[in-house]
Amino acid sequence: MSNFQSLFEVRIANYDDITAITEITREAFIKYRELSGASRLDALNETYEDVKRDIDSKIVLIALSDGLPVGSVRVEIKPDKTAYLSRFGVRMQSQNNGIGKSIMNLVDKIMQKKGVSSISLHTDSKITSLIRFYYGRGFYIDSTDKSRGYVRAFLKKDYR
Q: Which of 5, 98, 99, 149 is the most exposed place for a label (fewest CB within 10 A)?
C-alpha cells in the first residue's frame, strides 16, 4: 500500500481560474452528454466571458488536487434566499476520491452561512451515479421533465 496521499483544496475561483474551469466543465459535460443522450447542452458552448460573468455574479468554487484544477461548481443565490447549483464537474481521472464531496461540503457551509433555505439543481434522472451522489449529499427528486429531450430530474436540498 502506498504512503502517497493526494492533497486537495476547494476555494473561491478567480479570473486566473477561468481557463481551467472551462476545461473542467467541458470534460464533465461531454461525458454527461454521452451518458444522457442530450443533443444540446449550453455548458458545452460557454465562452471565457460567460465564466467571467459567473465569477462576478455567482459563487464559483474550484477544487485543486496537488495544485492542479480538478473540479468546479457554480451557485447562484436568488433574492428569495434559495440557490441554484450548476456546472458541477470533476475531471474524469479525479473522480471517486472525495473531491466532489469536498466541493459540496463547502457549498453547504457557504449556503448555511448566507442563510439560504434550499438549493436545487437539474441532472439526468437515468445517470445512476449522479443521482446516488446527490442523494448521498441530502438532495431529493422534487420533479422531472422531458423539456430537454431526456428525463431531467429537479433535485432539491433543504437547509431549514
A: 5
DSSP states of 95-157 as a string? TTSSHHHHHHHHHHHHHHHTT--EEEEEEETT-HHHHHHHHHTT-EEEEEE-TTSS-EEEEEE
The pTM for the full model equals 0.93
CA distance 55 to 153: 26
User: 28: helix, coil or strand?
Assistant: helix
Q: What is the pLDDT of residues 67-122, one digit of tens each?
A: 999 999 999 999 999 999 999 999 999 998 899 999 999 999 999 999 999 999 99
User: For residues 99 and 86, what is the distance between their CA atoms, to the nearest angstrom?
Assistant: 16
- Separation between Cα atoms, residue 158 and residue 140, nearest integer Å: 9
Q: What is the pLDDT of residues 3-45, one digit of tens each?
A: 455 578 999 999 999 999 999 999 999 999 999 888 888 999 9
d(CA 76, CA 57): 8
Per-residue CA distances from 78 to 59, 100, 116, 117, 119 (Å): 11, 23, 9, 11, 10
